[in-house]
Amino acid sequence: MFSGIVQDVGRVQSHEQRGGDVRLLVAVGRLDLARIQPGDSICVQGCCLTVTEVQRGAFAVDVSRETLALTTLAELKGGSPVNLEPALRAGDALGGHLVSGHVDGVGRVVAVGSDARSRRLTIAAPAELARYLAPKGSVAVDGVSLTINTVEQASFGVNIIPHTQTATTLGALTVGARVNLEVDQLARYLARLLAVPAP
Description:
Shape: globular
Mean pLDDT: 93
Structural class: mainly beta
Low-confidence stretches: none
Number of helices: 3
């Protein structure tokens, strides 16, 4: 489980094909690797992955064909920046919202504008996710917890404040960029409860 509060922007050192799967080696900057061991979960661009190896200043993860097909991780290459967040521990602050790291779909940035010192992004989500998007609700974009400002059908608008622009990969997004989306868990469970009649 994660909070959507990115702790570091890492860089992909290598993207190695391994029998249909991919092994990523990710270099870190601020992230304390002393707290991370093989077997731990880490959120990379919004995707929960398992650490398989820890090296000096970097860690490795394996990415399955399923994850490659359903997220943007197949598009990563050497030098690509990635948002990083280690799994929450008991007592950690929950500054964003509960994020599982299970991507629900890939969206596309359709507009970028200015709103005072913030950047305003409009993101088109897959149509099947529209029912989970609500103004003032939460959404994770590439692993970053954001508040939805506006919703129009399956598109939604978010503001990226100056801190988030520099502390995550979201400040560099341009029109056409593909992003990993995870809808709010409470919205997902509520929709399921309403859809299934009580026994």
